[in-house]
Design goal:
The protein is of the alpha+beta class. It has six helices and six strands. Bound molecules: zinc ion (2 copies).
Amino acid sequence: MRAYAQQDHGHDHHHDGADGRHGCGRCAESATERAERLCQERGLQFTPLRRDVLAVVAAEGRPLGAYDIAERMSGQGRRVAAVSVYRALDFLTEQGLVHRISSRNAFVSCEHDHGDGASLVFLICRSCGGIDEMTAPAVESALDATLAQAGFTPTSRILEVEGECGSCRERRRREG
Ligand SMILES: [Zn+2]
Ligand SMILES: [Zn+2]
């Protein structure tokens, strides 16, 4: 099992601002730079709206809904409609730059080059709202066998597991 900790970007990655509104500028920057390059390679338009949506999602580091994204982008005379955010999210999801977390109807950014068909496992912490993305080849082959047996063709293979993350469990143990 290969773990891609969402937090493991080479810097401390806690987004626990008191107002819950501050983002991680370094994550946002590296995500948009990577996306820009990728869109250029694929001959796609990386519009300012798409860039802003990705920056907000990447800075958050945890699943964020379209309305929350729109709200973070609005203000100072700017009003961003959720429908525009959804359209940008569709594009970003198709390009593998963000993933949709169905159980939360929310989105997280992805900076892993795992390719289109990879089966992904998301570990969602119910305490801190954090999320880890993993690829799990063992799960993938077992799932493939089960699907083949059922004669079922998947359009996506994304598993979402809810629970408690290691650091929340650790904190709870320390606090007794
Ligand atoms: Zn991913
Ligand atoms: Zn947690």
